[in-house]
């Protein structure tokens, strides 16, 4: 049973470009969460999705950030017009049901130059 | 947990010895889960152990166990027989309010010395 998969593992973007981060949850998991980790910090919640629905996006910046989890395919975190402050590790987690343990992917390290 | 506090930024322990990492949290919920995650140099977040607040018995997973004090809102992690592979950042986490999203502490950097 494959774990949570994220790609790419490393992504370099110039300021103003778009970044697309992908997450495939564990088999059978229908709950996906995105977190951001800045250097020397813990993880901060961004958004919680179920298939075709955004359940909670209270941690998402109001502008430039969006997330989706389509009926088919991976969940996508999209950052438009990236700025240097977006440089961070972005982790995706999935769970089988709500209020259960979340299993994390290896993360995508985004560097904005 | 609305907030999660880890008061030990760094700790070290000798191989084969026991170490305890502290965590306190704040929540108004009565039923919730608490977690410890390990983040080795590879940056992968690995679930170490889970505690359900309605269970009085402390959770145990092999060499890892917790001391859960619900009234004190304390959730410490004990690592017995420390191994070099235990060297990592350890994060305590709890659910935010009644929601599924997790709130993480800032982490404790644990170094196991040979």
Relevant terms:
heterodimer; A: 113 residues; mainly beta; 4-stranded antiparallel sheet; B: 114 residues; 6-stranded mixed sheet; globular
> DSSP strand (E) fraction of chain B?
over 45%
Counted by DSSP, the helix tally of chain B is 0
Principal-axis shape of chain A: globular
Distance from first to last alpha carbon of chain B: 36 Å
Counting DSSP E segments of at least 2 residues, the number of strands of chain B comes to 12
User: Which percent range describes the beta-strand content of chain A?
Assistant: over 45%
Question: Nearest-angstrom radius of gyration of chain A?
Answer: 13 Å
Order of helices and strands of chain A: EEEEEEEEEEE
Number of separate helices of chain A: 0
| H/E topology pattern of chain B | EEEEEEEEEEEE
- Parts with pLDDT < 50 across at least 5 consecutive residues of chain A: none
Structural account:
The complex is a heterodimer of chains A (113) and B (114). With 113 residues, chain A is mainly beta. Helix content of chain A is 0%, strand content 50%. Chain A has no helices and eleven strands. Chain A has strands at 5-7, 10-13, 19-24, 31-37, 43-50, 53-56, 65-68, 75-79, 88-95, 103-104, 108-112. In chain A, strands 2, 4, 5, 6, 9, 10 and 11 form a seven-stranded mixed beta sheet that branches. In chain A, a hairpin with a 6-residue loop joins strand 7 (65-68) and strand 8. Chain B has strands spanning 3-5, 10-14, 19-21, 24-26, 33-39, 46-52, 60-61, 64-69, 74-79, 88-95, 102-104, 108-113. In chain B, the strands form three sheets. In chain B, strands 2, 5, 6, 10, 11 and 12 form a six-stranded mixed beta sheet that branches. Chain B has a four-stranded antiparallel beta sheet with strand order 3-9-8-7, with no helix packed on it. The model of chain B has no long low-confidence stretch (mean pLDDT 92). Chain B is an all-beta fold and 114 residues long. The A-B interface holds A 31, 33, 35, 41-45, 48, 55-56, 58-59, 89, 91, 93, 95, 98-104, 106-107, 109 and B 4, 33, 35, 37, 42-47, 50, 91, 93, 95-96, 99-107.
């Amino acid at each position: 049973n494959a774990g949570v998969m994220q790609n790419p593992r490393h992504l370099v973007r110039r300021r103003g470009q778009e970044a697309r981060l992908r997450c495939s949850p564990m088999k059978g998991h229908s709950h996906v969460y995105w977190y951001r980790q800045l250097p020397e910090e813990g993880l901060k919640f961004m958004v919680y999705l179920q298939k075709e629905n955004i359940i909670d996006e209270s941690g998402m910046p109001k502008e430039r950030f969006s997330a989706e989890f389509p009926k088919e395919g991976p969940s996508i975190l999209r950052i438009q017009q990236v700025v240097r402050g977006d440089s961070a590790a972005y982790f995706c987690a999935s769970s089988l049901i709500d209020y259960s343990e979340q299993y994390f992917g290896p993360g995508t390290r985004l560097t904005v130059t | 947990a609305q907030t999660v506090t880890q008061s030990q930024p760094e700790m070290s322990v000798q191989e084969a010895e026991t170490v305890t990492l502290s965590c306190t949290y704040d929540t108004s919920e009565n039923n919730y889960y608490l977690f410890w995650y390990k983040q080795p140099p590879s940056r992968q977040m690995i679930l170490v152990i889970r505690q359900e607040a309605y269970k009085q018995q402390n959770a145990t997973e092999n060499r890892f166990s917790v001391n859960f004090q619900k009234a004190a809102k304390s959730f410490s992690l004990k690592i017995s027989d420390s191994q070099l592979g235990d060297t990592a950042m350890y994060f305590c986490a709890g659910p935010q309010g009644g929601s599924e999203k997790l709130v993480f502490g800032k982490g404790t950097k644990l170094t196991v010395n040979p």
